[in-house]
Amino acid sequence: MDSAGETRTISLTVNGKAYVKAVSVRMTLADFLRHDLRLTGTHVGCEHGVCGACTILFDGLSARSCLMLAVQANGHALTTVEGLSTGDQMHPLQQALSDHHGLQCGFCTPGMLTTLVELLHDNPSPSADEVRIAISGNLCRCTGYEGIVAATLDAAAKMRAGAAT
């Protein structure tokens, strides 16, 4: 049986908004986010799960959306880079990346951000080495990573200070 035209209806939450959509059973989650939901912040690089550009939060855990099918997201909550900010208020990590020149071309940035948001959720006080380990699966050809590490440590400190008040 050829599944090329087969569809399924999925129900999921993306960035706090509920969706019910019919999708091809062969559509990747990255393509669904980019093309069906128009959330183009999720970038597609290698399409093999190596570069990390397509990383999103899947029920709060980082996941490569290029390696998943959209139908696998049925019943789950996703957060893309677009869901990290609140209105005009950037996530502290987004602001820190800007402050510390932790981005250049920006292609890897959405995957870096979602990966690091998970890290800071699990470990509010990471060491520089822990940050480097966390982003070891995210490739960046521009920055040399030092600005990203510095930004993450700064954001972690600010988030801890904000939580303490």
Number of strands: 5
Q: What is the radius of gyration computed over CA atoms, rounded to a whole number of angstroms?
A: 16 Å
Distance between the termini: 60 Å
Shape: globular
**Strand count, sense and closure of the main sheet?**
5 strands, mixed
Helical content (DSSP H or I, runs of 4+): 25-40%
CATH topology of the largest domain, which one?
A: Ubiquitin-like (UB roll)
Count of the domains: 2
The CATH architecture of the largest domain: Roll
At the fourth CATH level, what is the homologous superfamily of the largest domain?
Beta-grasp domain
CATH class of the largest domain: Alpha Beta
Give the count of helical stretches: 5
For the biggest β-sheet, the strand order reads 2-1-5-3-4
SSE series: EEHEEEHHHH
Low-confidence stretches: none
Mean pLDDT: 92
Task: Please give a quick description of this structure.
With 165 residues, the protein is an alpha+beta fold. Helix content is 34%, strand content 16%.
Topology diagram in text:
Elements: E1 7-14, E2 17-24, H1 29-36, E3 55-58, E4 61-64, E5 77-79, H2 92-99, H3 109-122, H4 128-134, H5 146-164
Parallel strand pairs: 1-5
Antiparallel strand pairs: 1-2, 3-4, 3-5
Helix pairs in contact: 2-5
Task: Give me some keywords for this one.
165 residues; DNA polymerase, domain 1; 5 helices; single chain
